[in-house]
């Protein structure tokens, strides 16, 4: 029984570590609002479109369960998304892209997003196409600009 418990523990620990690798996390000294405002500006300057801004903290407040600041920006650029959907139309399920800004329990604000290579891993032709590296580069540049 002890071996089964240890094996299960190692499997879950490995799965948790693997999931953590799928999420790119960047620290910022800005507030959640400032970071996403800066991200929105960077997105506009890059010629992409912001489709929505979701304020999770405002939603939580409405139901009487407050959480620290937490927002998601949903955005895209047809120059990046369209080629992925030409390769496999199901890629549209994971587009547009999203970046979350949240404040942790220590008051630190983070920008996070899922690595597009991991997001599209169900679609081999998309995952292994050059467009994924372009998406990765765009997300890295945009979040770095927003975090500064």
UniProtKB/TrEMBL annotation:
Protein name per the record: Uncharacterized conserved protein, DUF302 family
Phylogenetic classification of the source organism: Bacteria, Pseudomonadati, Pseudomonadota, Alphaproteobacteria, Rhodobacterales
Residue ranges occupied by any DUF302 domain in the UniProt entry: 54-116
Keywords, alphabetical: Signal
Pfam families: DUF302
Signal peptide limits: 1-20
């Amino acid at each position: 029984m002890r071996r089964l418990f240890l094996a299960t523990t190692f499997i879950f620990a490995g799965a948790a570590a693997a999931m953590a690798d799928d999420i790119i996390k960047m620290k910022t000294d800005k507030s959640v609002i400032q970071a996403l405002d800066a991200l929105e500006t960077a997105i506009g300057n890059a010629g992409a479109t912001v489709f929505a801004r979701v304020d999770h903290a405002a939603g939580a407040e409405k139901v009487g369960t407050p959480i620290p600041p937490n927002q998601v920006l949903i955005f895209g650029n047809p120059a990046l998304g369209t080629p992925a959907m030409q390769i496999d139309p199901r890629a549209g399920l994971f587009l547009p892209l999203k970046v979350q800004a949240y404040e942790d329990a220590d008051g630190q604000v983070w920008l996070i997003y899922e690595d597009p290579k991991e997001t599209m891993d169900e679609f081999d032709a998309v995952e292994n196409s050059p467009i994924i590296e372009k998406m990765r580069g765009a997300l890295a540049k945009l979040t770095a600009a927003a975090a500064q």
